Amino acid sequence: MRFSNTFLDEIRDRVPISNVIARRVSWDKRKTNVSRGDYWACCPFHGEKSPSFHCEDRKGRYHCFGCGVTGDHFRFLTELEGLSFPEAVQQIADMAGMPMPLADAVMEKREKERGSLIDVMEMATAFFQDQLQTANGAKARAYLRDRGLTGRTIETFRLGYAPDSRNALKEFLAGKGVTKEQIEACGLVVHENVPVSYDRFRDRIMFPILSSREKVIAFGGRAMSSDAPAKYLNSNETELFHKGNVLYNFARARRAIQGSGRDQQDDNASGTIIAVEGYMDVIALHQAGVENAVAPLGTALTENQLELLWKMVPQPVLCFDGDGAGIRAANRAAELALPHLKPGRSVRFALLPDGKDPDDLVRDEGRAPFDKVMSQAKPLSEMLWSREINTGKFDTPEARAELEARLKQLVAVIADENVRRHYQQDIRDRLNAFFQPQFQNRNSGERRGFGGNSRAGRDNAAKAGPKSPSLISDRLARSGPVRGHRDNTALRESVLALTIVNHPALMIDDYDEIAAIEYDSRELQRLWSAVLGAAAAVAGPHLTRDYLTERLEFEGFGPLIKSLDQQVRNARLWTATEEAAMEDAREGYRQALAFHKRAKALRRQKMELEREIALATEAGDGEAIVQLIRAQQEVHLEGVRLENQEAIIDGFGVLSGRVKGAANH
């Protein structure tokens, strides 16, 4: 049975090649980078002790640097497992969840017709190229020269010219034996609601649009006449061309990335894929040496085009003009990307100087200014934050609450729960910093917020003042529940994390509450992300301690887990250890979680009271200061009571002794 290239491409795209190969190899933990889809193993085709077999999901290819074997999904199965090609296709299709195509005459006829349409598009491309070099194309050649394009660049992108004629292309193709139906199927003529069809592209510079297999599937045309109703005109949707699924220069940019010898994404313009706004931007950048740029086809970026970018690199850069329209387009792209973020997969944003596009920048000043813009690309989180804090003043509690609500609503659409949780934490950190008073000396009269933005906390505290009384604040800061990363809080977080690692079955009953825990420790934040990811990958009964610790050690968390275990054993908190009975682990975990939540609430109260005391002091409101200090003292006493209560419970736990083994070993 013959399979269409469309079907083979689709099942290859749906199944990462690492999933196919992983059934026959064990990935090397040191060299493999899972988040980037970059895998290493000992070669299954020849015996070796050190891993020289490499596969990359974004390329869909494998290669052994020892024996030289190379191939794709199908070749791996046919050569290693001895399957026939149809059997290999069947296996990949099953993994992709796609039915096999029926072996019927209609399908074969359709595939043959697609091939003939490709041939027609190639003939049209050659026609346009030839026309550019004739007397009719003189004006178009002059325009391209004025735009700074060299003859080599024009040839590389196969630019051409559609003459100002209703029948020139149609008659040329008819003379080559192309039928009327084929010309219409390629979208080369307009035939709706008119008795006689005529050429779709007239008096336009022609930009061939290539498929991922580097076949011409459509055209874009730039009008030479200022009176044309549309400056740029694309081919209509056809059997070959679906505008929202194609990026201009995709195949060439992908080849540039694959040939760059970079396994990881750099921060400069050469180490990623750059999405710009138009054909001429792509071509001008290519001529300046930036060969890894692509562009959507005259419309806003689509979800499918975003997926194409992610197939090439985990963090493409979206480049927009720095004017109002460009920033609005960047904001739309940010909202488009949010639901589809995954660990290690995001986008960055580069904003050009106002009034400049990439074509202008490299033509006037060379590549260096563009590289500088790329080096300053912002992450998605920063783009969203900048947009929201520039929308107005936040001088009232209601305005600040509205800002917080908008940000929470934005990130709620992120489908991946791990990424969503980290974005929620990022929002909390930014809001705390943005609204936290940071005073300069009393004579400066200014108050700064997050990132040095003097609009933070704007008019509600425009003048600086002395900080809140230090005695109460220092005493409160020394209490266990509010002292941040110091001993008790760090130990409590260690108990929470290690209990789940040793008793993952606890997650089955209380997953939502457990998954929402916020850790202060950066190390534990990373560990927790890996724990939740591992838990999401298996069904409940298979979520065992052995499975979880093996996954975590594979991802490099072995030393951290060992350190946590030693910490809790030294503190005699046996309920977090592997030896604790499940009922004791559950009870100890619930107690630790309750203390953790209350401690964080006290810390937030402390910060808010300090801020209010500072504002009241500046305003000279003595009555409010007295009330606020009294409230601060109550928070401090609550912290002391919480510490004492926790110590009593911990002591009872150690003495109860329901363990399978000693607390220390």
TrEMBL record:
EC number(s) on file: 2.7.7.101
A Pfam family of this chain: Toprim_2
Zinc-finger ranges (CHC2-type): 43-67
InterPro entries xrefs: DNA_primase_core_N_sf, DNA_primase_DnaB-bd, DNA_primase_DnaG, DNA_primase_Znf_CHC2, DnaG_bac, DNAG_N, DnaG_primase, TOPRIM_DnaG_bac
Catalytic activity: ssDNA + n NTP = ssDNA/pppN(pN)n-1 hybrid + (n-1) diphosphate
Regions annotated as coiled coil: 592-619
Annotated segments matching region Disordered: 441-485
Function: RNA polymerase that catalyzes the synthesis of short RNA molecules used as primers for DNA polymerase during DNA replication.
Similarity comment: Belongs to the DnaG primase family.
PANTHER family: DNA PRIMASE
UniProt-recorded name of the protein: DNA primase
